[in-house]
Fold this sequence. Notes:
This protein starts with 6 loop residues before the first helix and ends in a 5-residue tail after the last strand. By secondary structure, it is α/β, with parallel strands linked by helices. The strands form 5 sheets. The chain has a 6-stranded antiparallel sheet with strand order 1-4-5-12-11-8. Strands 15, 16, 17, 20 and 21 form a 5-stranded parallel sheet that branches. A 4-stranded mixed sheet has the order 3-2-14-13. The chain has helices spanning 7-43, 109-116, 188-194, 214-225, 245-254, 272-280, 300-318, 334-342, 362-370, 386-401, 409-415, and strands at residues 81-82, 87-89, 92-94, 98-101, 104-107, 123-128, 133-138, 160-162, 165-168, 171-173, 177-180, 183-187, 198-202, 207-211, 232-240, 260-263, 284-287, 324-325, 346-348, 378-382, 405-406, 425-426. The chain has 2 domains: 81-211, no CATH class; 226-426, TIM Barrel. The chain is built from 11 helices and 22 strands. Helix 7 (300-318) packs across helix 8 and helix 9 (362-370) packs parallel to helix 10 (386-401).
Amino acid sequence: MGxxxxxxxxxxxxxxxxxxxxxxxxxxxxxxxxxxxxxxxxSQPSPTPELDILTTxxxTxxxTxxxTxxxTxxxxxxxxxxxxxxxxxxxxxxTLLKYEIEDIVYVNLFELASALVGTDGQFxxxxxxxxxxxxxxxxxxxxxxxxxxxxxxxxxxxxxxxEIYILLDESPVQISAFTIEGDVYFSLxxxxxxxxxxxxxxxxxxxxxxYTSQTIANIITRRKSLDPSLPMVALTFDxxxxxxxxxxxxxxEEHNAVATFYVLGNRVEKNSDLILRTxxxxxxxxxxxxxxxxxxxxxxxxxxxxxxxxxDAIEAVTGVAPTSMRPPYGSxxxxxxxxxxxxxxxxxxxxxxxxDYLNKSPDxxxxxxxxxxxxxxxxxxxxIHERTINATRRLVPALIEKGYQLVTVSELMELSxxxxxxxxxxxxxxx
Length: 431
């Protein structure tokens, strides 16, 4: 039997027991509290987020209404009448199919291009079907080809305005156009304007004149104004071209007058610009031999070379061979006439010679002419003397004021109904 425990031992056992019981009770309370909190958390709803009272929600956009297409208007037929109004290009009549719509003449672009081929105003249209564009090349070396603007229109037979994109030398231009019975016709005025050509409508004769330059327009307009019933004379200048010739041209241009220049062949090429200006002003250029010999003292072969080489030099610059010659010093005989006839040259002399090649004053040259001039005279001068230039400066306006029309030798003969026959001598145009 064991030894009984002491009071201290009993007290320790009691304390241990009390601590154990307390620990158990504490643990039970903690578990109960945790379980209660968990149950409350599970049973409570989630908190509602606070609203930002400063933010206004955007309204939902309404759908864009689809517009109702406007009904296509009925096409308005425009009256297009064929017109037989005559058309000339640089004075030559041309045939074009033309329509007149509201007093405006319309033509086919390709027909107009064909009529202008070979002139300074030539142009070449090309229809580009891939992008429905007309390309126009001005003064091109290409050809018009087989293109036809009827490709633009399918089965359209109405007379309706249309818009076609046009490029002139790759720059866009606008020209009024109509479809007429399946073809496309363009405003003649607008077409010529974009091509820098000149159109003149003569209301008195109801005709249309087209000019490829202002110079040509001036020449032809001057010629059309000539009146065969009025007095006229032909001024002629020998031995040029010369540095002084430029001044004669300025005088003539100032007074819208012309003359005939009998030039030396050996001076033509080196003065080609001067020859070309002379010709382009509407003056006539004649043959005065190659080097100014006495033709009546030389052989037919040399006469032929003198005249033929000069003809060739002039034609190389102007594109036109002379139709008349003037023998140097007025020296002529049957050989000169025969060779001239062979080369298609009339032999032109003069009816007034003021002897300006002598050392005479400008006043005397002027007075000699004005005191003796009569209708249809041919006046001899030389554009290589300063005194002659000064006399001409007074002479041209004085003759015009006296009622004379200043014309070329060819014009003088034509208006006098005289044929400038090769190989024949001419001194005036009085018959």
